Structures are given as structure tokens and as C-alpha cells.
Amino acid sequence: MDNGRTMQRPGGRSARVRTAVHAAALELLETHPWEEISVPLVAEVSGVHQATIYRRWGTMSALLNDVVTEWSATTASLPDTGSLREDLEIYAAAVATSLQKGNVPLILRAVVMDIHPGQRRAASAAFIERERQLQTMLDRSEGRGEPTPTLQELLELLVAPLYFYALFTEPLSKVETTRLVDRLLDVVERRLGSV
Questions:
Q1: Domain ranges of the chain
Q2: List of residues 6+ apart from 88 with CB closer than 8 A
Q3: CATH fold of 12-70, please?
Q4: Which residues contact 162 (CB under 8 A, 6 or more apart)?
């Protein structure tokens, strides 16, 4: 999905182009089957010449990856309440809420549709940035002396289920996200208790 280009966050005309193209891609994801969406169609809807889109993103996959990266960077920011449990509950509820918005599951499904069997995939910029943010949350917790999950435990027991349910059934409710946080922290307590 990543074509090796570095997506920057420019201002001015470049920012307007990016905003228009992102909006067009989101609109098309809501109104067209994934197979029908193409760079020429995005160009038509956005009013941005397709040569500009090809030059900037190269492929629909790269464009959608940029849309997901932008969404991830601006959605569900990580809180710092002074308590890991509260931080995780607020974060999980915010992610679940954002996943209820109509176009977010569509974006995620479109990205998943670009996975090809047998091909290795590099981690997306959105995933790498979110991992960095989550690790910062965990480092703060550890610094306060709280029982702290590893990043892998956090991803597997809290983050992955949030996206799994949003992709394949319905996004989780606040009660269900709290249950995931409880389970994660129970696993951590058991792991630390057995050391």
C-alpha cells in the first residue's frame, strides 16, 4: 500500500489540494463500490487534475493510506489524566465513537481490500504514529509506578478488538470498551503477580 513516498503536511495550495482530494475520496467511498473508485473519478469529484493526484499519491492505495494517516493523527487523541485506567477508558471510548462515523469503517475496509495474499506489508505511517503515541502513554504510566501493559498487550487486547468489531460487525459501546480495558489490566495484574 505504501509506495515509498513521504506524505507531508504542507500549507497553502497543497493543503487545499489535499483537503479536496481527501473529501472526494471519502465521498466516493460512501457512494460507490470500492472497485469503481479510481484516480480519474477522484479527480472529477475533487476538481483536482488527475496528473496532480498521480504525482502526489501515485495510486489509490497510497491516497487511501494518506486519508487513514490523517484520520489517525486527528482522531482519538491520547489523554493524560494521571491514571492509566482512565487514559485507556477515554481513549478506547473515543476510538469506538470515531469508528461509528459512516466513512471511517469505509476507509478501513478499503484499506483492507488492498491486502494481497502472499505479499509482505510494511506498517503504515498511521500505525507507526499510533504505536509511538501509545508507547508514550505506557511510558508515563510506568513512570508513575502503575502496573503497565506492554505495547503488544495493549494492541492485542484493546486496540485490535476495537477495529475488528468495527470492520466485521458493529463498533463497540462505551460499556464494551470499558470491559476491554478491564480485561487488559487484569492480564497485566496476573502477569506481574506471577513474576
A1: 12-70, 77-193
A2: 137, 154, 158, 181, 184, 185
A3: Arc Repressor Mutant, subunit A (1.10.10)
A4: 92, 95, 96, 99, 171, 172, 177, 180
**140-to-6, 135, 178, 181 alpha-carbon distances in Å:** 30, 9, 20, 17
pLDDT per position as a tens digit, 119-173:
787 777 778 888 998 999 999 999 999 999 999 999 999 999 998 888 888 889 9
Specify burial of residue 180 (Cβ count, 10 A radius: 0-12, 13-18, 19+): buried
Question: Can you tell me the mean pLDDT for 24-29?
Answer: 87
Cα(147)–Cα(154) distance, integer angstroms: 13
In the CATH scheme, what is the homologous superfamily, with its name and number, of domain 77-193? Tetracycline Repressor, domain 2 (1.10.357.10)
pLDDT of residue 51: 95
Burial 108-131 (b: 16+ CB within 10 A, else e): bebbeebeeeeeeeeebbbeeebe
Q: 191: which residues sit within 8 A by CB, 6+ positions away?
A: none
Separation in Å, CA 42 to CA 33, 39, 166: 13, 5, 25
